Amino acid sequence: MSPLYAAVLGVIIVTLLVVSLLRARTVKTKADFLVAGRSLPAFVLVFTLLSSWIGSGSLLAGAENAYRHGFVALWQGGGGWAGLLLIYFIAPRARRFAQFTIPDLLEARYSQLARVLGVIAVLFAYTAITSYQFIGGGDILHLIFPTVISATAGKILLAVFVTLLTAIAGMSSVAYMDVVIGLLATVSMLVAFPVLVHAAGGWDAVRHTLPATHFQVLGDYTLLKALELFLPTCLLMLGNQSMYQKFFSAKSEKDARVAVVGWIVGTVILETVIVALAVVGSALFKGGEVANHPREILAYSALHGMPGILGAVLMGAIFAKVISTANNYLFSPATNLIEDVFARYIAPGASNKTILIVSRLMVVLLGAWALWQAMGTESVLAKALYAYTVYSAALTPVILAAFYWKRANAAGAVSAIAAGTFVTVFWNTAFVHSYLPAAIAERDAIFPALIAAVFCLFAVSLATKPPRPEQIALTAEEHV
Fold this sequence. Notes:
Layout: H1 2-24, H2 30-35, H3 42-53, H4 56-69, H5 74-97, H6 102-109, H7 112-144, H8 151-199, H9 203-209, H10 223-239, H11 241-248, H12 253-284, H13 289-292, H14 297-304, H15 308-346, H16 352-375, H17 380-394, H18 396-404, H19 410-426, H20 430-435, H21 438-441, H22 446-463, H23 469-473
Organism: Silvibacterium dinghuense
Membrane topology: Multi-pass membrane protein
Keywords: Membrane, Transmembrane, Transmembrane helix, Transport
């Protein structure tokens, strides 16, 4: 089986590299590298949005949850679906603003300090998300070549490859690779599901093999526990810089809105199929190696539960999706360091050539940081929720207020970002567990962090001077 799987992975790797090199020839300016020259049509936007959203958070963390608890894992994906419905109305405003990064928006609407704090929050969250993509890719390489590539060596190999791809052509490379990856993943997973169900003895056999809670709305969770999956994902979706950056890259406001419709349909289908595949896999492979590493259930099912060529293609699709998500979340904070730090404070008059060189260097440095985090991570689900919460609590309320609450001001935004980041980072420390009741301290950080951020945003904004009219006009409905 290994030669077949190796051949499929080889084709995918070469294809992605060729696409990246071809797109690199079109990169001449900062706008080309950071937002693909603002030229992406709706068709390309759909697949790059889909590929950037569905990565190891769904393929590993979501699948791990589904293996252990069943369809209740869809609460994590459902948060994204709810966020997408709201994004349909936000997308045109985001494209109208037409900048490079979320901190661009924070400075224009609030202040320089809000911009700096936004950069810090993005760096923490996005390098954490990139880190568990490296874990996912390393797991896949180890599964295919268990005697040749260890999981640790796999992380390193994937980190090097992703960093290379991302550095070559920036957003242009990322977006057009995502079209190839999105099509491959969608088709292969839809075909794989009925095949895996058949291998498990049919749907009735799956239901009889697993606990009844695997097929219930809340499963063996409480509503509060389900909401701790739902909220971070929903809020991450609403404030996702990578998403807004894609909207900034759109040809027009119409392309941005049309892309969201396709994104909603694709995300609901793919995330449901991913959870369903993991549930069926849990019935087919209840014990053995995968029971100790349930995050690998999709790749393990492809390797051991499907015909050779279909299993190889599905494994390749999962691998490609991990690469795609890693590209997106590695590229996004590199954009912050270039646009929000280097070009803003260090070398405001730098040429396009200089900016492109430094941009690629930033991608390499952030790739190294993400790899370092990957080496110390055990639970992908825990890492995913941490990353989602940092971003969701610190930035999403402030971003939404920029578009929809005219009274939000710089002081409120700064206090909200600081409070959300602080509570998330320190929530799981010994200090919190020592001085708070166990019933509170053992909860996920999303509720306390979000409450602190929203309280600061409203209370401080209302207690201080309102923003200037020109700040409000930047994101107002009538602004062009």
